[in-house]
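Note to self: keep these together.
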Amino acid sequence: MTQYKVLALDLDGTLTNSDKIVTPRTKAALHQAAEQGVRIVLASGRPTAGIRPLARELGLEQTGGYILSYNGGKIIECATGQEMVQHPFPAELIPTVCTFARYWNVVPLTYDNEGIVTEVPDHPYVLEEARINKLPVRQVPDLPAEVTYPVNKLLLVGDPVDMPHVEELMQQEFAGKLSIYRSAPFFIETMPLGVEKAASLSVLLQTLGLTPAELMACGDGWNDLPMIKFAGLGVAMGNAVPPVKAAAGFVSTDNDHDGVGVAVERFILGQEV
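Structure:
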């Protein structure tokens, strides 16, 4: 019997390959893990609507799985739809973040129940977010004026060359107010303060009566670093950014070569890989 009772999986660059699909080997390993009672958590910066199709594909409604969306802004139990964790974005900061983004020539977007909402729908990295999540994009003339409902995050998109500098400036501008980190070279996640994957996984583990030692987490990006450090076993994909590899207990193959499947076979199913 594996010591790992919960398996947290980043999606893009980790669970899914470059074509945004879960490979047959990885899918088979996850089904076996679920049959052994392991709770699978799809842990992503994506909005909930962008994760649900994968949750259904993996049968998480039947196996006691969870969706952790918006980098931990929300956790939903797949079987019941119950919200286990919910962290709304501070409404008073939405205009400030949008003004800051426009000044530095990056594009802010957020989400409604149908899809993506933004002022610049034809921006290439807005279109990339739409492609990743298979969601429609709705144009609005003024994003802060449009967002009169609770949201969990604002995503800023822009040229990968500029984003490290913009991220640094945002960290300074919103210190003590928001959590800010990149999830891809062209994405900056802006979240309620203290919200990241590890913090929300900690709440879920407590609810389940489990400890971090019983958590295995797989990831590749900067926003995965907290949960890689938090988990009893942190697994980096072969394509992970260097800090994630450095923090991981195991570096697997990359996401185009069954990286998650290889790790699950070895550490949960106990198979010689």
